[in-house]
Write a structure and sequence with these properties.
heterodimer; A: 238 residues; mainly alpha; Four Helix Bundle (Hemerythrin (Met), subunit A); two-stranded antiparallel sheet; 2 strands; B: 2 domains; 0% strand; flat
Amino acid sequence: MANPAAGTAVSAEPQGLESIVADFSSDQRAFKGVPWGKPMMWIFLLSDTFIFGSFLISYMTVRGSTTVPWPNPSVVFALEIGGRSVPLLLIAIMTFVLISSSGTMALAVNYGYRKDRKTTFWLLLATALLGATFVGMQAFEWTKLILEGVRPWGNPWGAAQFGSAFFMITGFHGTHVTIGVIFLIIVATKVRRGDLDHQRPGFMTGRRGNYEIVEIMGLYWHFVDLVWVFIFAFFYLW
Amino acid sequence: MAHASGHHMEHAAAAPIVHEKGQQHPLGIYFKIWGLLFVLSVASYLVDYFHLQGMLRWSLIVIFMLLKAGLIVSVFMHMLWERLALVYVIVVPPLLLLVLMSIGAFEASYTYLTRGEFFSPSVQAPEKAH
């Protein structure tokens, strides 16, 4: 950008909406200066947004259409601590675990671009461990509810649709977290081995490895946290 | 490091598309957002803990949810610093879900009323007595 020769040519770079029109009507690529992997991941996440959006909207529709009272999530997901029932305790802890993993992930992306291999590796590993903890707590929650008699077709407390919405939404989210943990371990291993520093091509690709894949991994991971924000609000708190 | 910056310069000179070293921002902003997300999560948990009800409950839940989502997308996912073309391509299409949401809401209230009309025992009983 500091190049004076280029400066005159780019001086009238459009701003705002005009820049979008200019980008899309230009040659070769619309997303200027964005590494190709990032829009790819974003477009995948966009499609995933529609999947989770459809789940949450169908949950809203069945919950709104049933004449049987909806089980109170505050009571259903309460935990007994010292003889006292604390509402939503496990879910709150899960929320904090997932937010913390998002924090370590954001730091990992930052240290990755500094090419600090060791710190990036440990931060990615911490993210994976927090993600695995989340999945573990979710398995505990599922077990507890199944033992209490919750099924996709019914439950002891009210509207039958509660179980199907619960298993579908949290199950799909948990699957995403699990895939993310596997993905994180793969990226962490690549970082630790120095694959990205030495630009070794990855699995199933001839393209050279670089630290952008840590940021792309991060996009996926933050998305999983983002979906949980909506599930927490609409399913557990509503 | 010398190699990396040399490579960067060469890249900048060769192509008009300048690659600004990926997304590199001071660490402080991540810690601040992290802290804010914790505070907002505690706040939304407290909404349930103190058994707030009605419009107050729903509006607080939605406000905290949207704030959290906004912080994650804009800072953690770097949307704040992305090119506008990418931001619009990703952020605008999900608004279509609002259409699906309204359709779902209409459908739900219609089904609810129909069920109340035809299947609810309390509604059927007086009709038979009549």
